[in-house]
Predict the structure.
Amino acid sequence: EFSMLGLGEIQRPVLMPQALPLERTRSMAGWYHVMAVDDSGSAWSWGYGDDGRHGLGDESHRFRPERLPSLSGILQVSCGNGHSLLLTANGGVLVCGSVLGGLDHSQDRLNPSLRPSPVAGFAGRRVVEVSSGESQCTAVDEEGGLWTWGYGGIGQLGHGDTEMRREPKKVQALASVRIRHALAASDH
């Protein structure tokens, strides 16, 4: 969809580069919506709003960047199909939307959050990196531990099973390895 470019509602391809109305962003991610972080630590979002994935308090679509109100100190953002993750300067993880929002698993859907809310399960831990796949999430803590949660239908969470996880769980198979980076994708 061309309207997700952040340039307003447009119906045709943009054939030449155009600047977004944002200055000095350092982190950007997108799926059916886009998030960006500027140099001041403010988060910006636009695109489809289903399940509240853009964190702006509702499910309406936005076709120009809007700053997430009352939120600062953001270091990184990552967008999944129906959710977004935000990493805070103090190592906290926030989520908005529904991790399973893009899949037809209505009986298993996590409750959508229309505004960024803390992810349970990281109390006392400092997270240094987050990544969103289609319907799963990864986080790396400062000690090099890998944590995953979301839809585990084909074993993509790394816990040796296919269970859905509502809260982050450390991947024990990698407990003896110091993880520096992790990326989630569509089914892996």
Summary: The two ends are 25 Å apart (CA to CA). Residues 58 and 122 are 26 Å apart (CA to CA). The longest strand covers residues 25-30. The chain is about 0% helix and 35% strand.
